[in-house]
Task: structure prediction
Amino acid sequence: QVQLVESGGGLVQAGGSLRLSCVTSGTIFSTTAWYRQAPGSQRELVASLTSPGRSNYGDFVKGRFTISRDNAKNTMYLQMNSLKPEDTAVYYCSGIDFMSSRYWGQGTQVTVSS
Result:
């Protein structure tokens, strides 16, 4: 059974930082990513990381976030700095395995107060 379990969300003041973690099990992913969804908005890509180490970020990130993963720990991370109120959303980790199947975590709430 494939599982992705996020943690690390919470309430932070604008300008602060959070690090999200996502522990994965049950398969090996070729691509891992973080998405977010704010109320009334569509889910959008925050950052992705492919197995060769290529990263891609949403335009709104502008150098504030860093995606990484530790394959030995089966854990992916999203370091978020300089957080803004508009970053408030539910953040989801996601993975695509080598059979091109996509999996999702349950989400973790990030709230940035002004």
The two ends are 40 Å apart (CA to CA). The mean pLDDT is 95.
